[in-house]
Amino acid sequence: MKVGVLALQGAFARHGAVLTRLGATAVEVRTPEALAGVDALVIPGGESTTTSMLLEWSGLADPIGERLADGLPVLGTCAGMILLSTRILDGRQDQVALGAVDLDVRRNGYGRQIDSFEADLAVAGLDRPFHGVFIRAPVVERVGEGVEVLATIDGQPVLCRQGPTLVAAFHPELAEDDRIHREFLNRAFTGA
Ligand code: GLN
Asked: What contacts 24+ positions apart, CB below 8 Å, involve 118-123?
């Protein structure tokens, strides 16, 4: 199974290492040609306004939208969660919202004082807490009907799933814990 990691900008390298550890073939995606060869995709953290511009310049925005509409399994972390949402608050006017998960998210929504923090999260389906590393993370302000909330902090969703789309406000690739990537791959490739 070939899993693409969008590698235009940001925190893509660690995802590749986790995916490889789990037995997947990780492919860095920078072009529509590279995208065409993958069976699943990770959209990493970074700066979502910059990634958005690079998605347009690279010609990847439309093909990614088409693959998502066809059911491509996708894991989005932090900026990836923002890009995959329906509506982005405090983004750029022209920022790409891929709409694979029916959420409204506010960029940098945790505010200045706690713009980076760590927290142990109770995650639905996992028997032990997952250590969440949050870096200028988005806050989810609306959850659509088809969205399952898998973890929250103070009542705010931080891990959500809609069909083949899994999004985290935190950085699971930084946790030395592969369980969220494993869940993603299991669902993507076995439907489990
Ligand atoms: N604050 C960033 C943004 O708006 C996201 C930060 C991250 O991905 N760690 O895109």
From this structure: 119/153, 121/151, 121/153, 121/158, 121/159, 121/170, 122/151, 123/150, 123/151, 123/159, 123/179, 123/180
**pLDDT, tens digit, 9 for 90 and up, residues 83-124:** 999 999 999 989 999 999 999 999 999 877 678 999 999 999
What are the sequence ranges of the domains in the chain?
2-190
Ligand 1 site residues (CB inside 6 A) read 45-48, 78-79, 82, 107-108, 135-136
User: Does domain 2-190 correspond to CATH entry 3.40.50.880?
Assistant: yes
> Is there a catalytic annotation at residue 173?
yes
Q: What SS3 state is found at 131?
A: strand
HSE-CB for 178 with a 13 A CA cutoff? 14
Q: Dihedral of the CA atoms 72, 98, 51, 171 (nearest 10)?
A: -70
Which among 147, 150, 151 has a CA at the least distance from the CA of 162? Answer: 147
Active site annotation includes 181? no
Q: Can you tell me the distance from the alpha carbon of 31 to that of 152, in angstroms, rounded to the nearest whole number?
A: 35
Total-model pTM: 0.96
Q: Check: CB of residue 172 under 8 Å from CB of residue 180.
A: yes
